[in-house]
Automatic annotation (TrEMBL):
Keywords: Oxidoreductase. Pfam families: adh_short (PF00106). Belongs to the short-chain dehydrogenases/reductases (SDR) family. One of its GO terms (molecular function) is oxidoreductase activity. It comes from Fukomys damarensis. Transmembrane segments: none annotated. This is Dehydrogenase/reductase SDR family member 7.
């Protein structure tokens, strides 16, 4: 943690002395050096055109609410137009943006043939795309032995290929302008391997690999920033919507989420990430962060701990009381 970081988010990096360092954003850590000499707050995103996928729920929905309090243009995408219209109304009621600043653009990430047309629609409306936030996605709660192969196909189609496809549509525009930000909501499950989420982990590992490669390919375009955001458990509908053992089955309703990070806090930290062009951030409360550190730096210990905690999680899943584990330590493995 940075010295003086006790106040967490209330002591933003802008106040800190120049220099490269590894900092904590309050309880949530970004494993990344701050850019030297700077340290922007989210207001620096003013006057940008931001396209958010998965804007109808959870992290994406909260992200557009917080962005709508600044002077930005927003494109809201997800599959359900009605839900997007609801989110738009709230943005207009509580934010400072006007009707002309917000475009509802229904989009199915798995329908890759529609992505080019959607990109053109955004460019036609606002003339540019400054920030693409690849947020839409789904999780999984099923054992490898039980999960139908279609579950894996769907998770790769949506979380991985859908994101890659949209990014590829937007990229030529950013390259032409030599600027832009591609922010992808990955997960701690892109670093930590978790039982019951094998397909989800695979899709998020794949995404992390893809964007790390893309970042290197873009070195001659320093104005294009590729950011990967890895949250731990955050309050949203991600578990409710998670695929079970068949692609037609979802987990459904889940019990309390109070142990998870508040969506608003996660999003605030994401905005700071975006304003500061950070390459990779880990956003989580303890002990989730600690487990991620173990996976990164002490994989042998991480595997030992995973076996202990994972066993319990699997037992609970098998005995049909999987919801109980959401409150206990085995949630170390949440998406
Ligand atoms: N909430 C967490 O604990 C957590 C942790 C780590 C990462 N994440 C990631 O955060 C992102 C947002 O998830 P969330 O937690 O807000 O969950 P959520 O279920 O509340 O929201 C998911 C969003 O993705 C959209 N979506 C789903 N399938 C889609 C499709 N085919 N096409 C377009 N949009 C689609 C949904 O409509 C919704 O808007 C996901 O990528 C998820 O993997 C969440």
């Amino acid at each position: 943690m940075c010295p003086g970081d006790k106040a967490g988010i209330e002591s933003p990096p802008a106040r800190r002395a120049p220099g490269i360092r590894t900092c904590a954003l309050g309880k949530a850590v970004q494993e990344e050096a701050w850019p030297s000499g700077t340290g922007a707050e989210e207001q620096e995103l003013t006057d940008t055109v931001v396209w958010v996928t998965g804007a109808s729920s959870g992290i994406g929905e909260e992200l557009v609410y917080q962005l709508s309090k600044q002077r930005v243009s927003l494109v809201l995408s997800a599959r359900r137009e009605q839900e997007l219209e609801r989110v738009k109304r709230r943005c207009l009621e509580n934010g400072i943006i006007k009707e002309k600043d917000i475009l509802v653009l229904p989009l199915d990430l798995t329908d890759r043939s529609s992505h080019e047309v959607a990109t053109k629609a955004v460019l036609q409306e606002f003339g540019r795309i400054d920030i693409l936030v690849n947020n839409g996605g789904r999780s999984q709660r099923s054992l490898v032995i039980d999960a139908n192969l279609d579950v894996y196909k769907e998770l790769i189609e949506l979380n991985y290929l859908g994101t890659v496809s949209l990014t590829k549509c937007v990229l030529p525009h950013m390259i032409e302008r030599k600027q832009g930000k591609i922010v992808t909501v990955n997960s701690m499950a892109g670093i930590v391997s978790v039982p019951l989420s094998s397909g989800y982990c695979a899709s998020k590992y794949a995404l992390r690999g893809f964007f790390n490669s893309l970042r290197t390919e873009l070195t001659e375009y320093p104005g294009i920033v590729v950011s990967t955001v890895c949250p731990g458990p955050v309050q949203s509908r991600v578990v409710e919507n998670a695929l079970a053992d068949d692609v037609t089955k979802v987990v459904g309703s889940v019990r309390g989420q109070s142990y998870k990070m508040a969506t608003s806090r996660c999003v605030r930290l994401m905005l700071i990430t975006m304003a500061n062009d950070l390459k990779e951030v880990w956003i989580a409360e303890q002990p989730f962060l600690l487990v991620t550190y173990l996976w990164q730096y002490m994989p042998t210990w991480a595997r030992w701990l995973s076996n202990k905690l994972g066993k319990k999680r699997i037992e609970n899943h098998k005995s049909g009381v999987v919801r109980a584990i959401y409150i206990f330590l085995s949630n170390t493995y949440q998406s």
